[in-house]
Please model this.
Amino acid sequence: MRVKAAVLHQSGGHKRPYKDSKPLQIEEIILEKPGKEEVIVQIKAAGLCHSDLSVIDGNRIRPMPMVLGHEASGIIVELGEDVKGFEVGDHVVFAFLPSCGHCDYCMSGRPALCDTGAKANNEGMLLNGDRKIKNENGEEYFHHLGVSGFAEYTVASVYSLVKIEKEYPFEVAALFGCAVMTGMGAVVHTAKLTAGESLLVVGLGGVGLSAVLGAKAAGASQIIAADVSDSKLVVAKEFGATDIINSGEECAMDKLKQRITRGGVDKSVEFAGAMAALDFAFNATKKGGVTVTGALPHPDARLSLNPLTLVGQEKSLKGCYLGSCVPAIDIPNFLALYRNGNLPVDKLITHRLKLEDINEGFDRLASGEAIRQVIVFD
Ligand SMILES: NC(=O)c1ccc[n+]([C@@H]2O[C@H](COP(=O)([O-])OP(=O)(O)OC[C@H]3O[C@@H](n4cnc5c(N)ncnc54)[C@H](O)[C@@H]3O)[C@@H](O)[C@H]2O)c1
Ligand SMILES: [Zn+2]
Ligand SMILES: [Zn+2]
Model:
């Protein structure tokens, strides 16, 4: 099957603006037939996430060439062998980490740590270790996190898919595959926020703002939103933050501890990707506080932390991948919160794009001008 896709041939080394250097090339690619427990999905919507940008700018090393995109929704159009639980016509959201179902982590209910899924993702393969994308010269391309959503169609393992009700708009549903699952999951699963607790969210992109909405839905007593961009702070207020703070300003920590709270927050989540942001999130928690980091900084980044604060103040620092979610359970549950009006994540969408405009989209994401931009396919 021949389809149009956005292909990255080189990670890093692209000058901005990307609209001129065009790191993503729109090409016709060839999709092979789906194999055992694989399907073809017609992509209907795909969001632009900072984790795609990190592959483009070289902060996250992946094998090349790769069809990018990992936050997507679509319709199943063809089944491979032995597919159970899915049919042609089903609407699906992609989880950006497939889960094998039988490694120790999957067996203990933590598919976000699936060994087989992580290996496949790191190698740019589908869950079974295969590749199903090539160009017209026969050169094989890599899959991005088992999704490769910046394409008209893709081949995916069924273990990357979550079936959803047909009532949801595709462009909203796509966000649940990454931004919403991660931001909401960080709050309710990793931080385990309970009603009445206070939360600080540092880094107000699509993921951080999903955490703001998640905290509101979970009944946080106070939601403090922090960023170094004042325009993001204004948006966070509209999303339900009770207080905002520019964490780049001098005295920001004093302001948070003395004026906004009485000595700090119960919990904090960080989705900025900068060490200064994580430092701010950790220092802002009070004794016994829990800090969750879900951003993906450069692999060489190192945190400087006084371990005594972990001991004497019983603070903790936790990592969060995939929102510590079980996608097959959490995505339908979080979607139901959206349907009930308790998780209005459609507000995250600032731009709708055509595939051809993807490089301009990444310029807007890099400059902080956009929150979630979604490529909408006809
Ligand atoms: N853990 C996961 O499973 C997972 C999933 C998706 C995304 N991510 C990561 O989460 C991060 C956020 O993704 P996004 O798409 O929302 O990104 P984004 O670019 O839309 O938002 C990042 C925000 O952080 C702010 N920021 C940058 N430096 C800061 C600093 N020093 N202090 C405070 N704020 C700062 C920016 O102004 C921006 O508003 C990225 O690192 C991404 O790779 C992780
Ligand atoms: Zn993402
Ligand atoms: Zn597994």
